[in-house]
């Protein structure tokens, strides 16, 4: 009887360890992560409509009908990433994610200069170079210094009612996501 109890306890502990390991490895092993889905839709530095699994009605959740979003993949090995948009919408927010989907930085129109979307994403080494020779066209930009080389920028726009849907879609559709080389 003691051997059976011992074997059951060891089996449960082993199963728990395997279960936790699988859960921790799942995001890195999944071929359906955000990076892969966006890579299938668009090249680097191209904005594309962004839809998450939680945007689909059903067991995963109900889509938020008031928000629209676009995403842009970037590679800082090609230069700093410059994300810029113009226009007036009730609210916008932008988030920078690393390749695995971890949020690196977020801001919104209330924290941007003149409520305009103008973000420069760069590595610490690129920030040092930028400080030595600043570009005049980036003087109003919000600089986001990141420890990553590849990532995703997601910009969301809020349309409080149907009269704003077209304006928000136009705002998001006109967002420029380009590499800036000095």
What does this structure look like?
This protein is α+β, with helices and mostly antiparallel strands and 182 residues long. The protein has two domains: 1-30; 43-180, Domain of unknown function DUF1254 (Immunoglobulin-like, Sandwich). It contains four helices and nine strands, in the order H-H-E-E-E-E-E-E-H-E-E-H-E. A five-stranded antiparallel sheet has the order 1-2-8-4-5. A hairpin with a 4-residue loop joins strand 4 and strand 5 (103-108). The protein is extended, with a radius of gyration of 21 Å.
Strand percent estimate = 25-35%
Q: What is the helical fraction, as a range of percent?
A: 25-40%
Mean pLDDT rating: 86
| Radius of gyration, taken over Cα atoms and rounded to an integer in Å | 21 Å
Sheet with most strands: 5 strands, antiparallel
Low-confidence stretches are: 55-62
Count of alpha/pi helices: 4
The helix/strand series, from N terminus to C terminus, equals: HHEEEEEEHEEHE
Q: Give the tally of structural domains.
A: 2
Q: How many E strands?
A: 9
């Amino acid at each position: 009887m003691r051997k059976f109890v011992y074997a059951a306890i060891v089996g449960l502990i082993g199963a728990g360890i395997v279960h936790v390991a699988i859960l921790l490895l799942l995001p890195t092993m999944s071929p359906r992560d955000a990076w892969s889905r966006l890579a299938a839709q668009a090249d680097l530095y191209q904005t594309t409509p962004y839809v998450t699994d939680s945007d689909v009605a059903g067991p995963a959740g109900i889509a938020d009908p008031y928000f629209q979003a676009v995403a842009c993949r970037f590679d800082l090995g090609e230069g700093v990433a410059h994300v810029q948009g113009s226009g007036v919408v009730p609210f916008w927010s932008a988030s920078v994610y690393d390749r695995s989907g971890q949020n690196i930085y977020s801001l919104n129109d209330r924290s941007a200069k003149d409520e305009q979307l103008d973000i420069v994403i760069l590595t610490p080494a690129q920030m040092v170079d930028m400080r030595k020779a600043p570009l005049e066209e980036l003087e109003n930009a919000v600089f986001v210094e990141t420890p990553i080389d590849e990532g995703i920028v997601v910009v969301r726009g809020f349309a409080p009612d149907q009269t704003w849907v077209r304006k928000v879609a136009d705002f998001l559709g006109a967002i420029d996501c380009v590499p800036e080389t000095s």
